[in-house]
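Quick note —
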Amino acid sequence: MPVPQGEWGAPLLTPLLLISALSVSAQVSVIVDREVNAKLGSDAKLNCKVKTPDIISQVTWQRKLSPNNENFLTYSKGEEPMHLTPFGQRVKFLGNGDLGGSIRIPNVTLADQGTYLCIFTTFPGGTKEAEIKLVIQVPPKITLEPTEPVLSGPSPSPIAVCRAWAAKPAVNITWIFSEARYISEENSTNYENGTVSTCSQLVTVPLPGHNGRNVTCVVSQSDGKSMESWSQTLTIQHIYYAPEVKAKVIAKDDGTIQLSCRADCNPPATEFLWKRDEMDLPDNEAEELGATRLLSANTWKGYYACVAGNEVGYSSGYIYVQTVTVPGTCNVHYIPLILLIPSLLINIYVAVIHYRNKKRERYRNSECCLRFRSNCTPILRHIQRLGCCGEDHAEAPTDDAGNATLSVQRDNQHIDSQGGPSPSSELGGHDRGASGAILQCTSMTMARDPDSSVEDIS
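Predicted structure written out below.
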């Protein structure tokens, strides 16, 4: 019995067609980058290629717009690309029509951001598409500026402002202010094109020591895959404070003195006033030279004060001047002393020579050397009375014969009393004195040190 066509034909044919369509569709694959990031003003490349054994008949690019998508470029193998819109006129086709269909968008703008469709038409597989999201990154325009001048004091105040203008995506701002305590205050402004401006203020207790120091603003931006940072540095110079005054005195070569006044303040001091003993220095005694004064000698001694002022306030520095030594005058007092040195040395030399000569003469006149042929022992004072000192050979003086004879006799008597031989028997061959005895005295030159206190007699 034949099967009715209306009951069996359609049910058997429909599943076969579905299986065939699914097998063909499964063989077509479009490969793209799901998201592409490009900086404002750069070129954006949208990669797209297909993997299929079918014949590629056409490549089409669309942008998702509301309410309908927009075709802006098509390409058929063997033909030139067709740029269908003004936007499409900017786009360059990079594919060859076989397996590649990439494009490049030069000099991208914020308007170029969006979702793009890459569509391949194949035979017999039909069409296959994939989406690419193009994200435009806008680097910030960074400015770092000081605030209006602030007064040094205990209250926290903003001292610097860092702004990152019209960035996309929004940025993060941090500060570097070494060895100082601070906080940051931040606010943002969003715009219709998707950019964001961020403003950050550096807040601290302003101190005079902050002037001249650097503060750095660091701006960071992330595109979701990588982080990029920029920085700017500012030197703080706008913290105002009243003068801190120091005074000093400087001696000048011309006999005057200079009073110097140093005022540490911001802004610089514009007014200086010198006083002595709480009175203004008269103009006829001092010449004003900004922060200095030149004074004559009759105005040196006193208690001086320098008053310095700027637009913040006034302050004073004090110094007491008693005596001043002018440089170069102290060396004059050494000239007479230098001239006296040769004369002093000559006088010392002459005195030493004279002293040594006198000492030698004294020893030479006080030394007598006697030699006796007998065993008698002479006494120095007796020898001196005989006049035998300082001569090579001398006899007893005869000017007073009686005295000399008497002395000899006394000596002989003394010797005899000791039990020694008589001088007369030993010296029998010589002339005798009145008492029949004579003493021969011979002096001998002694080799000795004049400074020695020991006498050598032979």
